[in-house]
Write a structure and sequence with these properties.
The chain is α+β, with helices and mostly antiparallel strands. It has two helices and 14 strands. It folds into two domains: 114 residues, no CATH class; 136 residues, no CATH class.
Length: 284
């Protein structure tokens, strides 16, 4: 075999190998999986102890964190060792859940976290098996996520409509206060001049309802520590209003963002208190 023939065979061999490699690379690209685009199942599990709760597709229970009421995650650093985040970019809701209730946020560390109705979702490291719910109520800040909640427990700094910070006793200052919100993170209030099961604020024509809208929701399930017997309802000029320990419940019209507590300073501090489980029953 002369040198010219050898050279021709070598060129042909190289061309064949190059073709095989290119085909292989193309095949790898076609079959590669973009993990960010995978659909992650979230389900609803019925439990005897906690009613209906959110789980992942393997049955591991998911949780809310009370300080996250503004929609941002406040679990950082060492906190994440006990409360790993759910980081699915695309959710495939099951069991009647609505896709529109799920979204994502970008955490301060640049990672993605899944949210449900604006609440960032977490696992609890102490849950070792599907269906375990060992994190509910931990530090009075962690609560199992439930699609049945109409009221949730939040915590944070009270900031009035005047821009000032307030403590739990409505004096100026720094401090964390626990308070109730609806499931969307909108703060709930009572009116100091109301009495037991009596709304003394709303006008018969609801002309002042925009300032302090009456609040009503059906109570199906409640976060840890809340008692369904403390909730009731009254009729206010033909409309239902929720009560808590006899206090009629309101929104504040100027609260426009999740976790806003502007109402605590209107018209002066303490006239429209936030609601939490420590509030005394309304006077008769």
């Amino acid at each position: 075999m002369n040198n010219q023939t050898k050279s021709s065979i070598q060129k042909t061999y190289v061309s064949i190998l190059t073709g095989i490699l290119l085909i292989g690379l193309a095949s790898c690209r076609d079959n590669s999986t973009d993990t960010g685009s995978e659909e992650f199942e979230i389900r609803v599990e019925s439990t005897q102890s906690h009613g209906k709760v959110l789980t992942d597709g393997d049955g591991m229970v998911l949780y809310f964190f009370a300080p996250d009421v503004n929609g941002e995650s406040h679990c950082i650093g060492n906190c994440l060792a006990n409360w790993p985040v759910l980081d699915a970019e695309q959710v495939k809701p099951q069991d009647g859940l609505e896709a529109s209730d799920f979204s994502t946020i970008q955490r301060a560390d640049g990672t993605v976290q899944t949210t449900y109705k604006g609440w960032p979702l977490y696992y609890f490291a102490g849950d070792q098996q599907p269906g375990e719910i060992n994190g509910d109520g931990v530090n009075n800040a962690w609560y199992v996520a439930s699609p049945e909640y109409a009221i949730t427990i939040a915590s944070g700094q009270l900031v009035g409509n005047d821009g000032k910070n307030y403590k739990s006793d409505y004096t100026e200052g720094e401090g964390t206060t626990t308070f109730f919100t609806d499931i969307e993170g909108r703060t709930l209030y009572t009116f100091k001049k109301d009495s037991a099961n009596t709304n003394n604020y709303t006008n018969p024509d609801f002309s002042n309802n925009d300032a302090w809208p009456i609040f009503y929701t059906e109570i199906k399930n409640l976060p840890n520590g809340l008692n369904q017997q403390d909730f009731g309802e009254i009729n206010v000029y033909g409309k239902k209003q929720l009560t808590y320990k006899g206090w009629p419940v309101y929104y504040f019209g100027n609260d426009t963002q999740r976790g806003d507590t502007k109402g605590v300073s209107v018209p002066s501090p303490g006239i429209w208190p936030i609601i939490n489980s420590e509030i005394s029953p309304a006077p008769k």
